[in-house]
Design goal:
CATH superfamily of the largest domain: Metal-dependent hydrolases
Number of strands: 17
CATH architecture of the largest domain: Alpha-Beta Barrel
Shape: globular
Strand content: 15-25%
Bound molecules: N-(iminomethyl)-L-glutamic acid, fe (iii) ion
Helix content: 25-40%
Mean pLDDT: 95
CATH class of the largest domain: Alpha Beta
């Protein structure tokens, strides 16, 4: 039994109209695919007990009231009445680029006037337009910006966030970006997974010799990030105008050699074959707008997650969205994330992503919720701790003003998240400068 001092941090949530556990009955710990993507483990009049940042027990309000923790020592327990609320695991935003300093308003206006993302990048806008701000900023300034983004995310129900570097694009600025992510993670109660994405685009100083930049990534940046434990993953933008498949393979091979996980942006603007990437066992392949039927069938046999980012399609004004139906129906495990970044997806809102996924990708609200929580955790290989409400897991919880889970994807452009618990700690507006 816990001691009295440990008991003081206990929290009891009761009477949730719907509590979504996302617990899978068979106890299977792999990613959810096919019909599993619709299983929410829903409990009506749900309750949940938290102590020391972990979930102790979950069930109906009546069942949880009988738990020995409560019957033995009812004192020191903060109760949150969740009547009229939907309670679910906090969102896992498994793909974000928060290390930037300013919005790209010129790009925004150019695109409104008809220029494409690629044309804007070729004319000096795009990712390279964010470079100067990051290179000039101090680590603390970058960290402050990241903390502000993480605070917004928490306000929308997100408790775990993957954060990529990728706007520094030289050794010093990429390492500074990763240090800023680490600094920000120390200031926030949620979980942050850091990713080195020096392979975002080739910086201007290496434009004539991209091979030299790839060499620096493999020989200097990846070994240093691994040695200093500044990143868990390495990401690469495999695309026309960014990195070739061959360069990407070299980068991911170096990552694997240094025991870092790998992931890639692929098939965002043009089709690509996935096999050359799959040999590195990527945790996720992201965007996937142009994935082929054959590669979808291949992915269905693997634990690699297809992370779909519909907010980017929305913001770029595209007619086409990632092919969620095709992927889910053949058995690919799908996650949803914001892709928060200044060029293609300036949003921190996972509820907006759910809305876009349902309306434009024909995912059901249940599928969108599984993709934004449990499968997002799988995309970060964190499903042992995150992504579902089960005893022993981290107490990452979002509480929404709703009687029915479908409302999470129904209301858009408004924030109905009323409270977020990150490792059992309540996020409150006003903390972290909000
Ligand atoms: O995921 N595709 C590459 N990276 C980002 C865009 C970054 C930017 O334009 O600043 C994305 O969409
Ligand atoms: Fe991205």
């Amino acid at each position: 039994m816990p001691s009295d001092s440990q008991r003081s941090s206990a929290t009891l949530l009761t009477h949730a109209a719907q509590l979504l556990t996302l617990r899978y009955p068979s106890g299977d710990t792999g990613p959810r695919r096919g019909a599993q993507t619709r299983e929410l483990g829903l409990i009506e009049d749900g309750a949940l007990l938290i102590a020391d940042g972990k979930i102790v027990t979950v069930g109906t309000t009546g069942e949880v009231a009988k738990h020995e923790f409560l019957t033995a020592a009812p004192a020191h327990i903060e109760e949150i009445d969740c009547s009229g609320k939907v309670v679910l695991p906090g969102f896992v935003d498994s793909h974000t680029h928060p290390v930037f300093t300013a919005p790209r308003l010129m790009d925004f206006e150019k695109r409104i006037s008809g220029a494409s993302y690629e044309a804007i990048a070729e004319a000096g806008g795009g990712i390279r337009a964010s470079l100067r701000g990051v290179r000039d900023a101090r680590t603390e300034e970058l960290a402050e910006h990241i903390v502000s983004g993480l605070g917004e995310m928490a306000a929308y129900g997100t408790t775990t966030v993957e954060c990529k570097s990728g706007y520094g694009l030289n050794f010093a600025a990429e390492m500074k970006s990763l240090e800023a992510i680490r600094e920000a993670s120390h200031q926030c109660p949620g979980y942050v997974a850091a990713t080195l994405m020096a392979a975002h685009v080739v910086p201007p100083e290496h434009r004539e010799n991209p091979e030299e930049y790839v060499r620096i990534i493999c020989a200097d940046m990846i070994p240093t990030a691994a040695k200093l434990k500044l990143a868990s993953f390495v990401d690469v933008f495999v695309e026309r105008g960014a990195f070739t498949m061959e360069q990407s393979q070299r980068i991911l091979r170096s990552a694997v050699e240094h025991n870092l996980g790998v992931r890639a942006h692929v098939c965002q603007l043009t089709p690509a074959k996935l096999a050359p990437l799959l040999q590195f066992h990527p945790a996720s392949l992201d965007h996937m707008d142009f994935v082929s039927d054959e590669d979808a069938a291949l992915l269905a046999r693997l634990d690699t997650i297809a992370t779909l980012l519909p907010a980017a399609n929305y913001f770029l004004g595209l007619d086409k969205f990632p092919p969620a139906r095709k992927l889910i129906d053949v058995g690919v495990a799908v996650a949803l994330a914001t892709d928060y970044n200044p060029g293609t997806s300036p949003t921190t809102s996972m509820p907006f992503v759910l809305s876009a996924a349902c309306t434009h990708m024909k995912m059901s609200p249940a599928e969108a919720i599984v993709a934004a929580t449990y499968n997002g955790a799988c995309a970060l290989r964190l499903q042992g701790r995150k992504g579902s409400i089960e005893p022993g897991k981290d107490a990452d919880i979002a509480i929404f003003e709703a009687e029915d889970y479908r409302e999470l994807a129904y209301w858009f452009g408004v924030n109905r998240c009323r409270q977020t618990l990150l490792n059992g700690i309540a996020y409150s507006q006003g903390a972290n400068g909000h």
